[in-house]
Structures are given as C-alpha cells and as structure tokens.
Design goal:
Chain lengths: ~110, ~550
C-alpha cells in the first residue's frame, strides 16, 4: 500500500519543488543548479516521480535556506515557461488576490 | 485597563531574550526547522503562504491607547503597515521577517504585549465580552476571572503540552457576546437561587472539522472553586483525550464520545480531592487582580442630553450611525461605541497603522485611553461621554471606521483564507468584499436587521461559519473554489450550528446565492421584527433552498 506521503508525490505532469525562504518566508523555487530562486521561471521542472523525489530530497537537505519544501504542479506556457498549476500556487507566486492597503505615507 | 505587575513584565522580556537566541540559532543552522518550529509556535509565529505571520495576544480584548500605538508601530516598522484583528480578539501581522521578529517582540514587550500561547497545544488567549466592565446587562466584570485564569495557565507546565489547543471564553452578561458555547471551556457568570454569583461551566464546544455546542457540566460553581475546577477539567482532558489522532484530540470529541454526564463525573472525581487545596481561591488574590483593573473616573452626566437629540435631528448620517454603532453604557451619560472594521469593499478586521494611531488618539481624547477588540473583528471605544458622540463620529468617519453596519449583513466575519493562510482551500476575503458591495444599501441592511454572515476558507473554521446566520465554508473541488452554505447558525446564548442549504456553489455564484437567500428571507418573514435566524428556525432551510437553487 502506498503511504499518503508517496501518494502525494504521484506525478502526472510537470512539477517543481517550492518552499519558503528561511529568513523572511518569501516563496522560493528549487533551480536546476541546486540553488533557490524567487522566480518561478528559474525552477527546475521535472515530469517523473523519481525525478521529483530526487529534487525534493536535495531541497529538504538544505534546511538553512528553505523551510517546508514540497512538490507542486505547474503548467508549461506556449513559450516553455512554467506557470503555477493551481490557485494556491498562483497566489503564492503573485501574492494575495485582494488590493492591499496603500502603505506609503503611513 | 489591567496593569501588568513586575512579574509579568519580567516574564515577557525574558521570553523575548530566549526567542532572540532561538532565532539566531535557527538562522545559523544550529537549530533545524523541526527543532525550531515548536519554539516559534509557542511565540505565535506561523509560516503562511507568503511570509511569517505573528499573532499577538490581546488578553480579554482590552488594549490601552499606548498598546494600540505600539501595534501600529510594529506594523509600520516590521510589516506592511496594516494588521488583521481576529475572531479570538488577537491581532496578526502577515508579512513579518524571521530576522526582524526578536526586535518586533522586544518593541511589543515594552508595551506589555506578546505572542505567547497564541499557538500550540496550550491554553490560548482567554476571550470575553468586548463590553466587559461597561455593559448594563452584566453581573460583574468577567475580565477579572479571565485574568485570573490567564495567570494560572500561562506557562503552566502541566498544560503546556495538551492533546490539542484549548480555548476558554468568559461572559457575565445575559446576552452572550463572547460565543462561550463554542469554546472548549465556556464560563458564564450567573446568580443562583440564593443570589450568590458563580459560574455555569460549559465544556466541549467548538467549531472546526467536527462542530459541537458546549454542554453544561456544572450549572453553578462557586467562585472560590474556579481554578481547581478548571484544573480538574484540564487534567481529565489531558488524561483521556486522543493524542493518537489530531482530528479527534480536541476536548469536544472526548465530551461527545464519553458523554457529558460521564465527563462531568470524571471531572468531579478529579476535582473533589483538590477542591480545598492550594487552588481554593483566597479572596485577597481576586481583590488584588480587581485592584489592578483601573476604571475611568467618570463624570456625573445625564443620559440623552438635548444637544445630542438636536444633533440626531440635524444629521441623518449621524443619527443612523448612533442608532447602529452606539450602545447603552452602565454609567449614565456614557456610551459604548463600536468602530466598524468592515467598510464597503474592505478586508474584514483589517486596520492600517495610520488608522490604529488615529484610533489610539481618539481613545485618549474620548474613551479614557482604552480600546477593546471584539470577536466579530471590530473595535470598541468603551467609555465615551454621550456629549462627545457627534465630535467622535466626525473623527471616526474621517478615519474610515464609522460605517453604520455593526451587526448587519455587511458586518461580515472572515478568516484570512487562501489569500494568506497555508491551511486554506479557498479565499474568504474577496467573497466578503463582494458581499459588502452587494449589500452596500444601508437602508436595506437596516431593514434586514441582525444578519451575520461568517466565512471560513477551510474546515478549521476560523471564520466561525458554523455559527453564522449565513455561513460560508470554502472547499476545493477539482482545483476550483466552492462554498458550502449553511443557514441558521448562531453564537450567542441560544447557540446553534447552521444547517446545510444544499450542494456547494462555485466562487462566481456564491454572492448570487447569498443574495437569493436574503431576498427569500424578505418574502418569508412574518413581520419586520422577525429576524433572519428566527425565520430559518421557523421554516427550516427548504424554502431558502428552493429559492437559492432555482434556475434563473
């Protein structure tokens, strides 16, 4: 029987590994060079469960830079760039969908 | 106001120093995230979708103007210039950096504020009636008891690692404004047949995945026994609750599975041997706590002076606000003023640092420097002289917190939802914003009367959707946001859980469905005085369902 953790890693399309940056919590993505970037287009995209597990294991080993890495789905745009694969990831990438207070002059 | 003593001030500053060291060790890699996470949670630091979130306790919802100014300053210095008041009378900052947190906490500590026990499996911030101490219908000030329990349970070693979180609320009024029946432990001050004041003890209420209304396990508990009895409840919970399953670990599940009577017998057996021990209350302890609550030096004034009546006649907007946001005070000539944090199109419960500063100034000028936070995510100025109401209203209007919608359809409770929260499945704030636009007509809102819409972005129910007159719960279906609609819930002394209206509706239709439900109410109510919840209680959800799901 597959564990819930393994089932979550079922990969049916392109995926990336994302986390939050330790020092400020900002959203970051695991890159091909084994680093982290705040830009999704820099993310390493993989398409198999084995590759995703490998990417995640390497990300999890970097406990100082990133917190809570996990595998997230992406869509590939016509020009080949990864885009968020669901609403949660869209909001993580672009920020809240609501207007935030104007904070200049506060 | 309650004045912290040296013990509390030392406790808070020592905690800041401890946390500063923990953050430094985490940033250096000396602590792993697994080691650090429980430490940060003990200080109210969560990691949300975009950033760390700091939750700051506001014990029994009472703030001084200096504390509110400090919250404004922390929002400005370390966050993005705004904060979010929550349904448990706390405030959250959404964008704080881990590296800045020790400095932010040191600033907060200088004003007697902290995030201790706002997260984790411990006794959380103890909440109460935001009108405590000034409500005409209360027996006595419930905050004295909330403070007593706060002192006893803060860093209590036996109750720092409970099976799950534990929320306590206290009320002393006939009308429950503190939602005590949907708390793990609800306390209601009441008089017995002999005229003595004691507590009705309710246990096992709660919302979340498995909602329950609390059961009365002790109809009357003497005041002297409150700490020993609370201790006994927590001990039974600690001993019996399901630590093996996070979804079944709250006390409500234990009370439900054991039965309220059996649970009460277990508590009784635990309590009897300790009842007359060191926890039996010495009246001097209560007198000491009561003495540290400072009440204003009220002037001798009369109610409803002729000037106020002429202002009401002269200005329709002022009259509407006064009829909605101003409540009777127990002292003649004074009033309780609610500040709506629910402007049209605004995120419920949010206030900017600039607004907080301005409200603090107005509290100094008109409310003896005191502010309250209500669980409905509004603020309160609790001690306003009626002769000052016109001037205060003009000032509040300029600050943007005088929308006369308190308790009405656009006074929506909403959690942060998927715009901020890592647990959420769906957004709550944009739904609330859209509904405030749909119901911008305040004449209609007044005609609708008391109508509470509560929205949660996930099953954890921070938006109290189960007890909304109209409750909306965001769920995710095949990658899309849907909302379950419940009707007839209420959080007051007649607390009830809402009944499901029908199939969940997609994001794009949820405001339409709510409008249909409200339109149905206008047609179905027997008279203008029959409130929405009373109509639902009389008719059930079926007539609303027919209307809401009819093809258009």
């Amino acid at each position: 029987m597959t564990s819930p953790q393994e089932r979550k890693r079922k990969v049916t399309g392109p995926v990336i590994v994302t986390a939050n940056r330790l020092r400020d919590g900002a959203v970051i993505y695991r890159t091909l060079t084994g680093d982290w970037s705040a830009r999704l287009e820099h993310a390493a995209v993989v398409t198999t469960a084995a590759a995703a597990a490998e990417l995640l294991a390497a990300a999890a080993a970097d406990d100082i830079a990133a917190v809570g890495p996990y595998v997230a789905p992406v869509r590939i745009s016509p020009d080949g760039r990864p885009e968020p694969g669901n609403l949660r990831e869209s909001i993580r990438q672009a920020g809240p969908t609501i207007a935030l207070p104007i904070t200049s002059g506060i | 106001m309650y004045l912290y003593d040296q013990f509390d001030r030392t406790l808070i500053s020592e905690r800041v120093a401890e946390f500063r060291d923990q953050v430094a060790r985490r940033l250096s890699g000396a602590l792993t995230e697994e080691e650090f996470k429980p430490l940060r949670l003990m200080n109210g630091v969560y990691l949300q979708l975009h950033a760390y979130m700091l939750r700051i306790a506001i014990p029994y919802g009472t703030l001084s103007s200096n504390q509110l100014r400090m919250l404004a300053a922390v929002g400005r210095r370390y966050d993005r210039g705004y904060g979010h008041f929550t349904t448990r009378q706390n405030i959250q900052f959404n964008w704080i950096k881990l590296a800045d947190l020790p400095d932010a906490m040191a600033d907060l500590a200088s004003a007697g504020l902290h995030g201790m026990q706002t997260s984790g499996n411990c006794v959380r911030n103890i909440t109460t009636d935001q009108w405590a101490g000034v409500a005409p219908d209360e027996i006595e000030d419930p905050r004295i008891w909330a403070e007593l329990i706060r002192q006893h349970t803060t860093m209590h070693p036996e109750f720092s690692f409970l099976p799950r979180k534990f929320k306590i609320a206290v009320t002393a009024a006939a009308h429950d404004r503190a939602a005590v029946k949907v708390h793990d432990l609800g306390l209601r001050l009441r008089r017995n047949g002999a005229g003595e004041v004691g507590f009705e003890v309710m246990v096992g209420g709660g919302l979340g995945r498995t909602p329950f209304i609390g059961k009365t396990v002790k109809p009357f508990l003497r005041k002297r026994d409150i700490l020993s009895y609370v201790e006994a409840v927590l001990r039974v919970y600690n001993a019996f609750a399901r630590r093996d399953n996070i979804y079944k670990a709250r006390i409500k599940i234990l009370v439900h599975e054991l039965g309220a009577d059996a649970f009460a017998r277990e508590v009784e057996a635990e309590w009897r041997p300790i009842q007359d021990g060191p926890l039996a209350l010495d009246p001097a302890v209560i007198a000491d706590i009561a003495a540290r609550f400072r009440y204003p030096d009220y002037a001798r004034l009369d109610d409803e002076g002729p000037e106020l009546a002429s202002h009401r006649k002269a200005d329709r907007r002022f009259d509407a606000w006064l009829g909605n946001a101003v409540a009777n005070h127990k002292v003649p000539g004074y009033a309780i003023v609610t500040l709506s944090l629910k402007p049209e199109g605004g995120p419920p419960g949010d206030a900017t640092s600039a607004q907080m500063d301005q409200i603090a100034d107005l509290a100094d000028r008109y409310s003896f420097g005191e502010i309250r936070v209500g669980h409905e995510q509004n603020l309160v100025l609790p001690h306003v002289a009626q002769r000052d109401l016109m001037a205060l209203w003009r000032a509040l209007d300029a600050v943007g917190v005088a929308t006369p919608n308190v308790g009405l359809v656009s006074d929506i409770i909403a959690c942060p939802g998927l715009d901020y929260c890592s647990l959420a499945n769906a957004r709550a704030i944009p739904v609330a914003q859209e509904l405030t636009r749909r119901f911008r007509d305040l004449d209609l809102a007044r005609d609708l009367g008391r109508l509470h819409i509560n929205i949660s972005g996930c099953i954890n129910a921070c938006g109290h959707h189960h007890v909304g007159h109209i409750g909306l719960l965001g769920v995710e279906k095949n990658g899309e946001e849907y909302y379950q609609v419940t009707l007839g819930g209420r959080a007051d002394e007649q607390a009830e859980l809402g009944a499901l209206l029908g199939p969940a509706v997609p994001y794009a239709q949820v405001a339409d469905v709510v409008e249909e439900v409200v339109a149905a109410y206008l047609e179905l109510r027997e008279c203008a005085g029959e409130t929405f919840v009373d109509t639902v209680k009389r008719l059930g959800v079926e007539p609303f369902k027919e209307r809401a799901y009819a093809p258009h």
